[in-house]
Amino acid sequence: MLTICVGDSIDLDVNKKVFHLYHQLLKNRHISWLDIVPAYATISIVYDVVIIRQQQFSAFDWMKSQIEKVMSEIQEETIIPSRQVNVPVCYDAEFAWDADRISKEKNISFEELIALHTSKSYHIFMIGFLPGFAYMGPVDPRIATPRISTPRTRVLAGSVGIAGEQTGIYPFNSPGGWNIIGRTPLAVFDLSAAQPVLFQPGDQVKFVPIAKEEFLSFDQSTFNVLDS
Amino acid sequence: MSMEVIKAGIADTFQDTGRYGHQHLGINPGGAMDLVAMHVANALVRNELNEAVLELCFPASVLLFKKPALIAISGANFYAELNGRPVPVNQSITVSAGTELKFTKVAKGVFCYIAIHGGFSLSPWLNSNSTNQKAHAGGWNGRSLQKGDVIEFKNDVSIIDETKMFPWRANVFDFYKEAENIQFLRGLEFDWLHSSSQEKLMKEFFTMTRVRDRMGYRLKGDVLSKQHGELISTSATFGTVQLLPDGQLIILMADHQTTGGYPRVAQVIAADRSKLVQINVGERISFRKISLQDAEDLLLLQRKMLKQIQITCTVHLKDFFNP
């Protein structure tokens, strides 16, 4: 695995550079590149040493030269279209396990919390931790809340949480330490789909508040998930 | 053409060489912990080397063969018995219908592999038969084996219906020799370690603890310390050695998360994964730094040795398949 460090902070501009480079690498993908993994400020390429060594003396040196070539050809002004994904979220008290606590800590009303969480589009910085778990942000500082001190042993699939300035959705039932403020009926991970993960790195995500009745009778086929 | 699980083991799953191309979606590659053993087991039954195999941990499943099969066991030695009769590892074996395979105790190693000629009939997910237990996908219904599971074989090889060991074995000694010496490359955050801790990492012994599974192996040794602050979540891979907040080390394994936030002080070379995987609780290892070029050369040498084993097995099995 070879890692390219673009920066060393959680920063929209740094991550947009990562996203840019990610797309450039995808375009120039070699058969020996098993995985290209963008993260907050880095991109890693998992490569097959054995394939490269059939032609080259050093797989690493060859990888390095290939990547330097790709990086030199990057045109910063090129705009890479990112998808707009709409995610319905029910903020009903039954699903919003930590909303009451955050409201009190932050001295805002429950309605304000929902309004702030749904007021803007979030950028997906990276996908990791669990299959399909997208780290999005940044949330409004007024609702940014550190992880709970003792993680729960079980957070239910679809739960929408906040951790610091990040927000995200649990794709499965899982242990977890994020503050839970709602739940989506949307399957962010669908095993039977050709593309099992709804999100992609670089997507823009907007949360759309829905009532509990809508949550219970939710039909994914009638909801406009992707803005075209 | 099937085998039945008479008694379930603690964590037996089907694995192949792994599921690549999806780590950017948080889907880890998985795959066999000990790829050498997986390849050797496949060579011994004349399969493609990347055919999915059954990976066993101890206590392992008890299996009943409902039809005859050509099998091989490799990796950890769990003192396998066919109908109560001891059978060796790294040898081709024909098994008659109605034979029970069980594993009695750990002689050596941690993960054991069974290959069947023709392979197991599984449900691939994203082009791999590796079991991803987080996503409940791949392998056998996306989970570890349970009592009553009946796994079909892809081929019907009713060649001879008798339990018999072939009179030769694959020599795997060189793959696992000097198991206590684990070779590594500097990790991206190696420099974060205080120089005294860098010395310790390269000179001291570290002991394998009980806290280990397909995701990672925790070691116990002298506490290491670092100077920098926190790492922003970034990629990690099989063999990445992370420094935990308590100053101890964890080595990420096949089911590693795709991203992590602990400093990566070292990276175990790919050629040493198999011997590392088979280190038992309480055994000691030490880390030895080598160059990237040497690491690549060692991996190529390992592939060449495996290819040689495959060729030898094919020659030995020729008469069996074409009498």
Strand content of chain A: 25-35%
Q: The biggest beta sheet of chain B, please? A: 7 strands, mixed, barrel
Count up the helices of chain A: 6
Segments of chain B where pLDDT lies below 50 for 5+ residues?
none
Distinct helical segment count of chain B:
5
Structural shape of chain A: elongated
Distance between the termini of chain B: 22 Å
Radius of gyration of chain B: 20 Å
Helix content of chain A: 10-25%
CATH level 1 name of the largest domain in chain A = Mainly Beta
Number of E-type strands of chain B: 21
Summarize the amount of helix of chain B as a percent range: 10-25%
- How many discrete structural domains of chain A? 2
Written overview of the protein:
In chain A, 39% of the residues are buried. By secondary structure, chain A is of the alpha+beta class. Chain A is built from six helices and 13 strands. Chain A folds into two domains: 2-72, Gyrase A, domain 2, CATH 3.30.1360; 84-227, Cyclophilin-like (Cyclophilin, Beta Barrel), CATH 2.40.100.10. Chain B folds into two domains: 2-172 and 305-321, no CATH class; 178-290, Cyclophilin-like (Cyclophilin), CATH 2.40.100.10. In chain B, a hairpin with a 2-residue loop joins strand 6 (80-82) and strand 7 (85-86). Chain B has helices at 35-44, 173-176, 195-203, 273-277, 292-321, and strands at 2-7, 13-15, 53-56, 62-65, 69-77, 80-82, 85-86, 92-95, 99-103, 108-116, 150-152, 164-165, 181-186, 206-212, 216-220, 234-235, 240-243, 249-252, 259-260, 264-268, 284-289. Helix content of chain B is 18%, strand content 29%. At the A-B interface, strand 2, strand 3 and helix 2 of A face strand 16, strand 19 and helix 5 of B.
